[in-house]
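Input (structure):
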């Protein structure tokens, strides 16, 4: 079985920038594209038989490369899926294998920037105000269909996501990376990450990826959806446009997010600094 690197994050935290930074500098790393999109662990949550077959084939390959798998799931979501009676045994075993054998990197980002980008990305047609979006219940899709947490809004989910990963990182070997540090100190952060993971850099020094190759054909698919007015479409095919929209969040909601969610971000940042990843 290939060496597995699970790159996890809250949605809109810069996941593909980190993945492409690894791909650009470590030739042994791979991020294969599935017929249904990128290699995301949560595709196993969605009763997608094609994704299950393709992921199982990748996991069963005996290669010396590093297989990168993306995920936006929190540790509790993973545990909940493994215990889900409606999920297929094969899918649960694949998730259990990835979760149990992978090396984990958790990328996190400051709350205001994360939730602003998440709002613009999730609601490109501007049906919800920023305040309405962050106060709406969070939901995800798994075997039994869409699951909504009635008492967990977007800001609660952000807090729980960072807190759960911070707790896991304090118990296990999880490399925590701050997205802002990755942007401003790219070479230093990636060199530290490569040293910790024993990855060989292809160049004499770390190179910043010029484009997000790991997005692959999904941008074309989203553009197709946008032209047809589908709700999950985005308004640009440029992966560097953060959030695909120029809409501004209101200052009152931003301040409340800063007041409520600075602590879990700061806790993870301190953990990342102690681990030498940021």
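Output (sequence):
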């Amino acid at each position: 079985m290939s060496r597995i690197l699970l790159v996890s994050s809250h949605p809109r935290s810069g996941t593909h920038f980190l993945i492409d930074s690894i791909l650009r500098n470590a030739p042994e790393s791979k991020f294969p594209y599935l017929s249904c999109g990128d290699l995301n662990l949560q595709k196993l949550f969605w009763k997608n038989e094609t994704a299950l077959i393709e992921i199982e084939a990748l996991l069963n390959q005996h290669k010396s490369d590093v297989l990168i798998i993306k995920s936006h799931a929190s540790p509790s979501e993973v545990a909940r899926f493994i215990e889900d009676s409606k999920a297929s045994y094969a899918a649960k075993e694949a998730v259990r294998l990835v979760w149990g054998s992978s090396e984990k990197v958790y990328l996190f980002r400051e709350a205001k920037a994360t939730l602003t980008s998440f709002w613009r990305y999730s609601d490109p047609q501007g049906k919800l105000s920023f305040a309405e979006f962050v106060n709406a219940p969070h939901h995800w899709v798994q075997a039994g269909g869409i699951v909504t947490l009635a008492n967990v809004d977007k800001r609660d989910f952000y807090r729980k996501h960072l807190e759960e990963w911070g707790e896991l990182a304090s118990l296990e070997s999880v490399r925590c990376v701050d997205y802002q540090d990755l942007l401003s100190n790219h070479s230093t952060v990636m060199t530290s990450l490569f040293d910790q993971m024993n990855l060989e850099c292809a160049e004499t020094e770390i190179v910043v990826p010029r484009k997000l190759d790991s997005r692959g054909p999904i941008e074309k698919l989203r553009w197709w959806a946008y032209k047809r007015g589908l709700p999950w479409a985005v308004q640009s095919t440029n992966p560097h446009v953060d959030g695909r929209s120029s809409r501004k969040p209101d200052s009152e909601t931003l301040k409340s997010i800063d007041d409520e969610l600075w602590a879990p971000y700061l806790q993870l940042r301190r953990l990342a600094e102690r681990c030498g990843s940021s």
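Notes: Residues 231-243 have pLDDT under 50 and may be disordered. The beta strands are 3-9, 29-30, 66-71, 103-108, 137-142, 145-153, 174-178.
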